[in-house]
Protein backbone atom coordinates (compact mmCIF):
# COMPACT_ATOMS: atom_id res chain seq x y z
CA UNK A 1 0.00 0.00 0.00
CA UNK A 2 1.32 3.43 -0.92
CA UNK A 3 2.41 5.60 1.99
CA UNK A 4 -0.22 8.18 2.96
CA UNK A 5 0.95 11.74 2.09
CA UNK A 6 1.15 14.34 4.85
CA UNK A 7 -1.88 16.68 4.84
CA UNK A 8 -1.24 19.69 2.64
CA UNK A 9 1.87 18.19 1.01
CA UNK A 10 0.13 17.52 -2.32
CA UNK A 11 -2.82 19.94 -2.48
CA UNK A 12 -3.31 23.30 -0.75
CA UNK A 13 -5.58 22.29 2.12
CA UNK A 14 -7.30 25.64 2.72
CA UNK A 15 -7.40 26.83 -0.89
CA UNK A 16 -11.21 27.10 -0.86
CA UNK A 17 -10.75 30.05 1.54
CA UNK A 18 -8.19 31.83 -0.67
CA UNK A 19 -9.02 34.72 -2.95
CA UNK A 20 -7.58 33.12 -6.09
CA UNK A 21 -9.93 30.13 -5.74
CA UNK A 22 -13.12 32.19 -6.06
CA UNK A 23 -13.48 31.83 -9.85
CA UNK A 24 -13.24 28.05 -9.60
CA UNK A 25 -15.46 27.41 -6.58
CA UNK A 26 -18.09 29.81 -7.94
CA UNK A 27 -18.71 27.21 -10.66
CA UNK A 28 -19.89 24.65 -8.11
CA UNK A 29 -21.75 27.12 -5.87
CA UNK A 30 -24.88 29.22 -6.27
CA UNK A 31 -25.74 31.66 -3.48
CA UNK A 32 -23.35 29.78 -1.17
CA UNK A 33 -25.08 26.47 -1.85
CA UNK A 34 -23.74 23.63 -3.98
CA UNK A 35 -24.98 23.31 -7.53
CA UNK A 36 -26.44 19.97 -8.57
CA UNK A 37 -24.85 18.31 -11.61
CA UNK A 38 -26.19 15.35 -13.56
CA UNK A 39 -23.97 12.46 -14.63
CA UNK A 40 -23.25 14.12 -17.99
CA UNK A 41 -22.96 17.69 -16.65
CA UNK A 42 -19.90 19.54 -15.41
CA UNK A 43 -18.91 23.03 -14.24
CA UNK A 44 -18.26 25.47 -17.08
CA UNK A 45 -15.15 27.64 -16.81
CA UNK A 46 -14.31 30.67 -18.92
CA UNK A 47 -11.74 30.08 -21.70
CA UNK A 48 -9.17 32.10 -19.73
CA UNK A 49 -9.50 29.78 -16.72
CA UNK A 50 -9.94 26.45 -18.53
CA UNK A 51 -8.42 23.65 -16.44
CA UNK A 52 -7.82 19.93 -16.80
CA UNK A 53 -10.09 17.44 -15.10
CA UNK A 54 -9.19 14.10 -13.57
CA UNK A 55 -11.79 11.40 -12.98
CA UNK A 56 -11.87 8.79 -10.25
CA UNK A 57 -14.22 6.05 -9.12
CA UNK A 58 -14.73 5.76 -5.35
CA UNK A 59 -16.64 3.01 -3.57
CA UNK A 60 -18.24 3.67 -0.17
CA UNK A 61 -18.12 0.58 2.05
CA UNK A 62 -19.85 -0.04 5.37
CA UNK A 63 -22.52 -2.11 7.08
CA UNK A 64 -26.18 -1.50 6.34
CA UNK A 65 -27.61 1.67 7.88
CA UNK A 66 -24.25 3.25 8.71
CA UNK A 67 -24.88 6.29 6.48
CA UNK A 68 -23.23 5.56 3.11
CA UNK A 69 -25.98 7.20 1.03
CA UNK A 70 -26.11 10.18 3.40
CA UNK A 71 -22.32 10.65 3.12
CA UNK A 72 -22.48 10.65 -0.68
CA UNK A 73 -25.30 13.20 -0.61
CA UNK A 74 -23.42 15.40 1.84
CA UNK A 75 -20.22 15.40 -0.20
CA UNK A 76 -22.19 16.33 -3.34
CA UNK A 77 -24.22 19.04 -1.61
CA UNK A 78 -27.49 17.16 -2.10
CA UNK A 79 -30.39 16.84 0.33
CA UNK A 80 -29.64 14.23 2.96
CA UNK A 81 -32.44 11.65 3.34
CA UNK A 82 -34.43 12.10 6.55
CA UNK A 83 -35.18 8.40 6.84
CA UNK A 84 -32.96 5.38 6.32
CA UNK A 85 -33.69 3.06 3.46
CA UNK A 86 -31.66 0.14 2.18
CA UNK A 87 -30.01 0.87 -1.16
CA UNK A 88 -31.44 -1.84 -3.40
CA UNK A 89 -28.73 -1.77 -6.06
CA UNK A 90 -25.87 0.49 -7.08
CA UNK A 91 -26.31 4.25 -6.73
CA UNK A 92 -23.78 6.70 -8.18
CA UNK A 93 -23.26 10.32 -7.18
CA UNK A 94 -20.89 12.75 -8.91
CA UNK A 95 -18.87 15.33 -6.98
CA UNK A 96 -16.90 18.10 -8.72
CA UNK A 97 -14.09 19.57 -6.63
CA UNK A 98 -11.27 21.98 -7.67
CA UNK A 99 -7.84 21.76 -6.03
CA UNK A 100 -4.54 23.60 -6.30
CA UNK A 101 -1.39 21.48 -6.30
CA UNK A 102 1.19 22.50 -3.71
CA UNK A 103 4.22 21.70 -5.88
CA UNK A 104 3.53 23.90 -8.90
CA UNK A 105 0.30 25.83 -8.25
CA UNK A 106 -1.52 23.96 -10.99
CA UNK A 107 -5.32 23.87 -10.66
CA UNK A 108 -7.23 20.66 -11.38
CA UNK A 109 -10.91 19.79 -11.26
CA UNK A 110 -11.54 16.40 -9.65
CA UNK A 111 -14.60 14.53 -10.88
CA UNK A 112 -15.33 11.96 -8.19
CA UNK A 113 -17.92 9.30 -8.98
CA UNK A 114 -19.11 7.87 -5.67
CA UNK A 115 -20.52 4.33 -5.78
CA UNK A 116 -22.85 3.13 -3.03
CA UNK A 117 -24.39 -0.33 -2.83
CA UNK A 118 -26.55 -1.85 -0.09
CA UNK A 119 -24.98 -4.70 1.90
CA UNK A 120 -28.02 -6.94 1.41
CA UNK A 121 -27.88 -6.39 -2.34
CA UNK A 122 -24.16 -7.25 -2.37
CA UNK A 123 -24.85 -10.52 -0.59
CA UNK A 124 -27.85 -11.37 -2.76
CA UNK A 125 -26.42 -10.56 -6.20
CA UNK A 126 -22.94 -11.92 -6.89
CA UNK A 127 -22.31 -9.65 -9.88
CA UNK A 128 -22.59 -6.36 -7.93
CA UNK A 129 -19.31 -6.46 -5.97
CA UNK A 130 -17.17 -7.23 -9.08
CA UNK A 131 -18.85 -4.28 -10.82
CA UNK A 132 -18.03 -2.04 -7.86
CA UNK A 133 -14.40 -3.24 -7.80
CA UNK A 134 -13.86 -2.82 -11.54
CA UNK A 135 -11.45 0.09 -12.21
CA UNK A 136 -12.02 1.47 -8.71
CA UNK A 137 -9.53 4.09 -7.53
CA UNK A 138 -10.39 4.45 -3.85
CA UNK A 139 -12.54 2.95 -1.11
CA UNK A 140 -14.07 4.90 1.78
CA UNK A 141 -14.74 2.65 4.78
CA UNK A 142 -17.51 4.14 6.90
CA UNK A 143 -18.44 3.56 10.53
CA UNK A 144 -20.83 5.35 12.88
CA UNK A 145 -20.22 6.65 16.38
CA UNK A 146 -23.65 5.37 17.45
CA UNK A 147 -23.06 1.81 16.24
CA UNK A 148 -20.02 0.00 17.62
CA UNK A 149 -20.73 -3.03 15.44
CA UNK A 150 -20.04 -0.85 12.37
CA UNK A 151 -16.58 -0.11 13.83
CA UNK A 152 -15.95 -3.76 14.66
CA UNK A 153 -16.99 -4.71 11.12
CA UNK A 154 -14.25 -2.56 9.53
CA UNK A 155 -11.74 -5.43 9.34
CA UNK A 156 -14.26 -7.54 7.39
CA UNK A 157 -14.96 -4.64 5.06
CA UNK A 158 -11.25 -4.03 4.43
CA UNK A 159 -10.54 -7.72 3.72
CA UNK A 160 -12.72 -7.51 0.60
CA UNK A 161 -10.26 -5.00 -0.88
CA UNK A 162 -6.84 -6.45 -0.07
CA UNK A 163 -6.12 -8.83 -2.94
CA UNK A 164 -4.06 -7.57 -5.94
CA UNK A 165 -4.53 -5.26 -7.75
CA UNK A 166 -6.92 -3.80 -5.14
CA UNK A 167 -4.07 -3.64 -2.62
CA UNK A 168 -2.94 -0.49 -4.46
CA UNK A 169 -6.32 1.22 -4.21
CA UNK A 170 -6.46 4.34 -2.02
CA UNK A 171 -8.19 3.47 1.27
CA UNK A 172 -9.58 5.97 3.78
CA UNK A 173 -11.74 5.43 6.85
CA UNK A 174 -14.58 7.87 7.57
CA UNK A 175 -15.61 8.34 11.18
CA UNK A 176 -19.06 9.84 11.85
CA UNK A 177 -17.69 11.28 15.07
CA UNK A 178 -18.93 12.46 18.52
CA UNK A 179 -18.18 9.01 19.92
CA UNK A 180 -20.73 7.26 22.11
CA UNK A 181 -20.24 3.55 21.48
CA UNK A 182 -16.71 3.85 20.04
CA UNK A 183 -13.98 5.18 22.34
CA UNK A 184 -11.33 7.56 21.03
CA UNK A 185 -8.58 5.18 22.13
CA UNK A 186 -10.15 2.44 19.99
CA UNK A 187 -10.08 4.71 16.94
CA UNK A 188 -6.42 5.59 17.57
CA UNK A 189 -5.57 1.91 18.03
CA UNK A 190 -7.28 0.98 14.78
CA UNK A 191 -5.45 3.76 12.94
CA UNK A 192 -2.06 2.57 14.22
CA UNK A 193 -2.80 -1.09 13.43
CA UNK A 194 -4.29 -0.59 9.96
CA UNK A 195 -2.09 2.29 8.82
CA UNK A 196 -5.18 3.93 7.31
CA UNK A 197 -6.07 7.58 7.94
CA UNK A 198 -9.32 8.13 9.87
CA UNK A 199 -11.24 11.22 8.78
CA UNK A 200 -14.05 12.84 10.75
CA UNK A 201 -17.37 13.73 9.16
CA UNK A 202 -20.35 14.79 11.23
CA UNK A 203 -22.03 17.66 13.02
CA UNK A 204 -24.15 20.33 11.40
CA UNK A 205 -24.39 20.60 7.63
CA UNK A 206 -23.35 24.06 6.44
CA UNK A 207 -24.41 25.89 3.29
CA UNK A 208 -20.80 26.41 2.22
CA UNK A 209 -17.76 24.17 1.85
CA UNK A 210 -16.17 24.07 5.30
CA UNK A 211 -17.74 20.82 6.45
CA UNK A 212 -16.76 18.79 3.35
CA UNK A 213 -13.51 20.49 2.29
CA UNK A 214 -11.17 18.54 4.62
CA UNK A 215 -12.47 15.16 3.44
CA UNK A 216 -12.59 16.04 -0.26
CA UNK A 217 -9.12 17.61 -0.14
CA UNK A 218 -7.72 14.55 1.64
CA UNK A 219 -9.34 12.24 -0.92
CA UNK A 220 -8.00 14.31 -3.84
CA UNK A 221 -4.55 14.44 -2.21
CA UNK A 222 -4.34 10.66 -1.79
CA UNK A 223 -5.67 9.94 -5.29
CA UNK A 224 -3.20 12.31 -6.97
CA UNK A 225 -0.33 11.04 -4.83
CA UNK A 226 -1.22 7.46 -5.79
CA UNK A 227 -1.15 8.41 -9.48
CA UNK A 228 2.22 10.13 -9.06
CA UNK A 229 3.67 7.00 -7.45
CA UNK A 230 2.16 4.77 -10.15
CA UNK A 231 3.65 6.73 -13.06
CA UNK A 232 6.90 7.37 -11.19
CA UNK A 233 6.82 11.13 -11.56
CA UNK A 234 5.26 14.20 -10.04
CA UNK A 235 2.76 14.94 -12.80
CA UNK A 236 0.47 12.23 -14.13
CA UNK A 237 -1.26 13.10 -17.38
CA UNK A 238 -4.92 14.08 -16.88
CA UNK A 239 -7.64 12.66 -19.09
CA UNK A 240 -8.14 14.60 -22.37
CA UNK A 241 -10.98 16.81 -21.13
CA UNK A 242 -11.25 20.34 -19.80
CA UNK A 243 -13.68 22.49 -17.93
CA UNK A 244 -14.04 25.45 -20.17
TrEMBL record:
<dbReference type="GO" id="GO:0006887">
    <property type="term" value="P:exocytosis"/>
</dbReference>
<keyword id="KW-0653">Protein transport</keyword>
<dbReference type="GO" id="GO:0005525">
    <property type="term" value="F:GTP binding"/>
</dbReference>
<dbReference type="GO" id="GO:0015031">
    <property type="term" value="P:protein transport"/>
</dbReference>
<dbReference type="GO" id="GO:0003924">
    <property type="term" value="F:GTPase activity"/>
</dbReference>
<keyword id="KW-0969">Cilium</keyword>
<keyword id="KW-0970">Cilium biogenesis/degradation</keyword>
<dbReference type="GO" id="GO:0030030">
    <property type="term" value="P:cell projection organization"/>
</dbReference>
<dbReference type="InterPro" id="IPR039677">
    <property type="entry name" value="RSG1"/>
</dbReference>
<keyword id="KW-0547">Nucleotide-binding</keyword>
<keyword id="KW-0206">Cytoskeleton</keyword>
<dbReference type="InterPro" id="IPR001806">
    <property type="entry name" value="Small_GTPase"/>
</dbReference>
<keyword id="KW-0813">Transport</keyword>
<keyword id="KW-0268">Exocytosis</keyword>
<comment type="similarity">
    <text>Belongs to the small GTPase superfamily. Rab family.</text>
</comment>
<keyword id="KW-0342">GTP-binding</keyword>
<dbReference type="Pfam" id="PF00071">
    <property type="entry name" value="Ras"/>
</dbReference>
<keyword id="KW-0963">Cytoplasm</keyword>
<protein>
    <recommendedName>
        <fullName>Ciliogenesis and planar polarity effector 2</fullName>
    </recommendedName>
</protein>
<keyword id="KW-0966">Cell projection</keyword>
<dbReference type="InterPro" id="IPR027417">
    <property type="entry name" value="P-loop_NTPase"/>
</dbReference>
